[in-house]
Amino acid sequence: MTTPLQLEANARTYCTSHGLSISRALGQGTDGCVWKTTARTAVKASENEDNHFRELACYERLGFYKIIEINGFAVPELID
Fold this sequence. Notes:
Helix content is about 40%, strand content about 30%. The protein contains two helices and five strands. A hairpin with a 3-residue loop joins strand 1 and strand 2 (about 30-35). The protein is globular.
């Protein structure tokens, strides 16, 4: 199992490679952890590869159908 510290290290590496940095934690759940970045975006590090690709596929489908809200909740835009 990946620890929250390992997930944060992965997120920081990703951010650095994209000219960003983490500003603060937003939360964590059963699938991973999410941080706010300095670019008014968020980055998520997933616990495992299967969960990552499953969630990625969901965001890609939502983007394809231009769904930006579900039951009053905003759907975040997938950037990268």
